[in-house]
Model the fold of this input.
Amino acid sequence: MIRAALSLACALTLSLALGGCGDDTTAEPGTFVAFQQNFAPYRTWTSLDVGNIAVGGHPAGHAVVYANNPVPSGCAWPVGTILVKEVQITDDRTQWELFAMVKRGGSYDSNPAAGWELFTLGLTPTGTPVITGRGVNPGADMYSGAGGGGCNGCHGTPSAHAFDSVLTTALRPRCPTR
Done:
């Protein structure tokens, strides 16, 4: 709990000082790079209540997943898609765990979770999301219960590739050939 609070405090301080930039904010043409402000309206997006979960690599708690785009009828999410999983582990939202996937596109993370940038987020007391980690495997030291690989331990597996690295069944692309 103290570690999470310190991590959030450090992230907030850095985001204010650096304007929310992360590890790699350069983009090749036709790609999307998410910044902190892109996550701000996530609670207004389409949501899916996935109930109480205890999924490897994620803390146990009530989970809601938000998507800024509708589930695609094609085989992949479009570039610019943002998916946020909010795990409400206590009544104090500053202790909630938030995980996000952003379809960056291009050659970003060409393998294992092709085209996706992965994020860990925290919430300020006013509910503003703050980026606490980003990249190919943010938080791999904290969230490696899924088999030792952080986010890509599950989202980057060959079985996940069939669904554009999205694991929540209701949010998987509806590829007509599957």
The beta strands are 46-53, 61-67, 82-88, 97-103, 116-123, 129-135. DSSP finds four helices and six strands in the chain. The chain has one domain: 2-19+32-171.
